[in-house]
């Protein structure tokens, strides 16, 4: 498959379109579209224009975007639950790749000067918990809860993009490096406590897995997130003898789920395995495994870096149509990098 074919296929998947749907929208035969995607044929300029228009991108983006990275490849990571359907996470993976391609064009125009940076560590030499402590130390974060995970990440130059995957997608977040710039895409429909853990989880991937993949990447990212949000030295005593009532009191302070508090209490040996199992049973009995109380009361995570990039371009005299074209979108309405709305993912 050629680079053009990969980008064409990825753009189609990101839109949730079948080959037949794209062929109809672009006015081409499905057999011809299949050959384009498999690199067996190159479309004529007129057909290229029609395909790009149907996909909401510019012809130049399709032709010169570069290679696509898989969600499980080096440099790209996805946090998904075991029940996530392959068709769903492939579509979200495609959305991440398209977001990366659009963002990379803007990074060519806007120089991000971050006051912090995302350090990277060799996971063979540095344990995830130690990496989290080092990040907190390097960023000079105060002790206690992380009040806004997205703000700290964006101060380090991480572009955080929210997309509404829907509650049925069972995918929480993804991350990639974009030409040296870290990019994280998260599910905006997730409750704030889960969203915060997802942000810290993806930060763990960026810190630990920038060079190569490991078999235990997800466990490592979870361990990083737990220490980053709930430092052992600060929570071991408060989590001792944890009960559901106590967890409900601690939740608004630390900004994480009751389940995360239970798991952390067990990790730092503040409760036994038997106590952990008992707490999970009580959590299930009260229906808290499906919907936890207090999540809506947590201060929301509000990424702002994308808006700042748009403001920078506007200050240079560009209008919305020109910014969309610069990023490789077919029109202003297709530009979802800076839109206030969060389009729902249409499950393929």
3D structure, described in words:
With 348 residues, this protein is of the alpha+beta class. It is built from 16 helices and four strands. It has helices at 3-14, 19-26, 30-37, 45-55, 59-64, 86-107, 128-138, 149-155, 192-208, 217-229, 232-235, 244-254, 258-267, 273-285, 305-315, 320-327; strands at 76-80, 159-163, 171-178, 181-187. It has a four-stranded mixed β-sheet, with helices on both faces. Helix 1 packs across helix 6. The longest helix has 22 residues, at 86-107. It is elongated. It starts with a helix and ends in a 21-residue tail after the last helix. Mean pLDDT is 88; it is low at 71-75 and 340-348.
Helix/strand layout:
Elements: H1 3-14, H2 19-26, H3 30-37, H4 45-55, H5 59-64, E1 76-80, H6 86-107, H7 128-138, H8 149-155, E2 159-163, E3 171-178, E4 181-187, H9 192-208, H10 217-229, H11 232-235, H12 244-254, H13 258-267, H14 273-285, H15 305-315, H16 320-327
Parallel strand pairs: 2-4
Antiparallel strand pairs: 1-3, 3-4
Helix pairs in contact: 1-6, 2-4, 7-10, 9-10, 13-14
Average pLDDT: 88
Strand order of the largest sheet: 1-3-4-2
Query: What is the 3D shape?
Result: elongated
Cα distance, first to last residue?
22 Å
Which sequence of SSEs, written as H and E, runs from N to C? HHHHHEHHHEEEHHHHHHHH
Q: Characteristics of this structure?
A:
348 residues; disordered C terminus; 4 strands; alpha+beta
Question: What's this model, at a glance?
Answer:
The protein has 348 residues and is an alpha+beta fold.
